[in-house]
Amino acid sequence: MKWVFIYLVIINFIGFIIMGIDKLKAKRHAWRIAEKYFFFVSLMGGSIGTWIGMYFFHHKSKHWYFVWGIPFILVIQMVILIVVLSGRKL
Description:
Layout lengths: L1 H26 L7 H22 L7 H23 L4
């Protein structure tokens, strides 16, 4: 369980950081991070960090697929976590 917690901290930190990096690059009109990577990191467990980064950096917060998609991924992950921790089958 310790390793799962460490993994989740790292992947959420990555989600938060890539939002900040992409926002900085957007301001500088530089190379950007593809949107699919934000969703990939979120699906891999980094949805909380990506979501917090989205609003902290005010980045991607006007795109409906981010405003609805990232929280949707988070809700699905929370449901899965609750089911796994409760020992019930889906």
